[in-house]
């Protein structure tokens, strides 16, 4: 009897292990890479064929199609054609093409200019490695003479050390009278104390010139965020919040047994393997759909305009009877599309300040109060801290507010005052 119990208990365990070996990699991958994850299974199984789901039309035929056709109304044929046909040069390509005479007349000046380009950061500012010129056998003054000529390159301001110098580079390119030039230059050079000039009669005219400048210099060349494909759609239907899988993007797994003897051991085993793979895909769908339903249940307020509430991975793992580490891998690189944007699933699992307050809610509050603040008296981090503690009934430290502010790309109070003044 003991041996029989051992045999019975081992069989399901082995079956579960085989299922998990297929299911986990499929669950962890995002929709865009799902076809590649399935390809090794196809290579090992001659009866399997995988076709990308985004090439399937409503009738089951295969034609190139975007999931955005259903999710949004922003696509157009012209935009699609432009996206496919327009090749945008990089900042470095544009600059390399300008390192020529007469601006850089000698081989040495051209060589130095190319080395300067290598010292630019992604914003187009000159952010050099310490004493890099010494490694090249150059002098700093020699490098600076060549860098000064970058004021005549496009995009205007590229190669400047900071925003002030970028402004000055762009000012030199403008055709303005000498008096206005002097006024604008004075404002740029004393930008930290911009407000003290607000009462001057020429202030508005000079500020209007500064407003025409573009910073950072390489803003046109910033890489666009990669378009992501959401696994889930959350939308309102007749007053109810509904969850829908992005079925259109799932690959089709086709079992082709034409002309084969399905009773043959090899063929029968491959058919079983193929069906196991299809089952694993269905398990992925079911798991993510359940996760979507639970996120909507926990975060209902968010989908009707409120903040994200604290939610732990363990909450979801317990409900799905899975290990938290499995859930963590499952939400990685997955997205949910709703009327508030395309949101990473991991964003719904915010760290909690206490049981009722998430850091996402505090960040949303900070954004709101800064947006509505008095332009003449921007809120300091200490003042923001007091407002957060009053609003949420929690105790925090100022450096946490400073950290959140920086993560939200919100400038400090003194910098915001200058920005408000420019506006």
Task: Write a short abstract of this structure.
The chain is α+β, with helices and mostly antiparallel strands and 423 residues long. The chain has three domains: 15-64 and 229-348, no CATH class; 91-221, no CATH class; 352-422, Homeodomain-like (Arc Repressor Mutant, subunit A, Orthogonal Bundle). The protein has helices spanning 2-28, 34-43, 68-71, 77-85, 91-96, 107-117, 132-135, 140-147, 163-172, 178-189, 203-211, 265-298, 300-303, 313-320, 324-331, 359-371, 381-392, 398-407, 413-422; strands at 48-51, 232-237, 240-245, 252-255, 335-338, 341-344, 352-354, 357-358.
Give keywords.
flat; alpha+beta; two-stranded antiparallel sheet; 8 strands; 8% strand; 19 helices; Arc Repressor Mutant, subunit A; 4-stranded mixed sheet; 423 residues; disordered N terminus
Give your account of this protein's structure:
This protein has 423 residues and is an alpha+beta fold. Helices cover 49% and strands 8% of the residues. The protein is built from 19 helices and eight strands. The strands form three sheets. The protein has a four-stranded mixed β-sheet. A two-stranded antiparallel sheet has the order 1-4. It has a two-stranded antiparallel sheet with strand order 7-8. Helix 1 (2-28) crosses helix 12, helix 10 crosses helix 11 and helix 17 packs across helix 18 (398-407). Mean pLDDT is 79; it is low at 1-19 and 57-88.
């Amino acid at each position: 009897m003991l041996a029989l119990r051992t045999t019975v208990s081992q069989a399901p365990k082995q079956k579960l292990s085989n299922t998990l070996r297929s299911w986990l990699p499929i669950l962890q991958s995002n929709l865009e890479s799902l076809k590649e994850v399935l390809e090794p299974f196809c290579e090992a199984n001659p009866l399997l064929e995988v076709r990308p789901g985004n090439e399937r039309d409503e009738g089951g035929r295969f034609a190139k199609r975007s999931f955005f056709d259903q999710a949004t109304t922003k696509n157009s044929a012209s935009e699609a054609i432009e996206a496919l046909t327009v090749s945008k040069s990089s900042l470095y390509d544009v600059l390399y093409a300008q390192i020529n005479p007469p601006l850089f007349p000698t081989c040495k000046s051209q060589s130095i200019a190319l080395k300067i380009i290598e010292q630019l950061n992604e914003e187009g500012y000159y952010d050099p490695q310490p004493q890099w010129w010494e490694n090249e056998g150059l002098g700093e003054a020699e490098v600076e003479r060549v860098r000064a000529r970058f004021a005549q390159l496009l995009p205007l301001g590229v190669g400047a050390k900071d925003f002030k110098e970028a402004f000055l580079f762009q000012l030199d390119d403008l055709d303005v009278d000498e008096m206005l030039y002097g006024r604008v230059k004075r404002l740029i050079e004393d930008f930290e104390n911009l407000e003290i000039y607000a009462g001057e009669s020429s202030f508005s005219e000079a500020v209007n010139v500064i407003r025409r400048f573009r910073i950072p210099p390489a803003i046109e060349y910033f890489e666009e965020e990669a378009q992501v494909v959401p696994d889930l759609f959350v939308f309102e239907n007749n007053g109810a919040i509904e969850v829908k899988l992005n079925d259109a993007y799932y690959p089709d797994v086709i079992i082709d047994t034409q002309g084969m003897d399905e009773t043959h051991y090899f063929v029968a085993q491959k058919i079983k393997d193929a069906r196991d793979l299809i089952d694993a895909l269905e398990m992925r769908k079911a798991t993510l759909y359940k996760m979507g339903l639970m996120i909507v249940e926990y975060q209902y307020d968010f989908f009707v305009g409120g903040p994200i509430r604290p939610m732990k991975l363990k909450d979801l793992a317990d409900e799905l009877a899975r290990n938290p580490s499995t859930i963590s891998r499952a939400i990685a690189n997955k997205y949910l599309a709703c009327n508030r944007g395309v949101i990473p699933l991991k964003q719904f699992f915010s760290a909690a300040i206490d049981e009722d307050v998430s850091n996402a809610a505090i960040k949303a509050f900070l954004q709101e109060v800064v947006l509505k603040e008095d332009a003449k008296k921007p809120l300091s981090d200490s003042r923001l801290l007091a407002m957060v503690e009053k609003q949420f009934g929690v105790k925090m430290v100022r450096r946490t507010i400073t950290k959140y502010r920086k993560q939200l790309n919100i400038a400090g109070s003194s910098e915001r005052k200058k920005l408000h003044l420019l506006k």
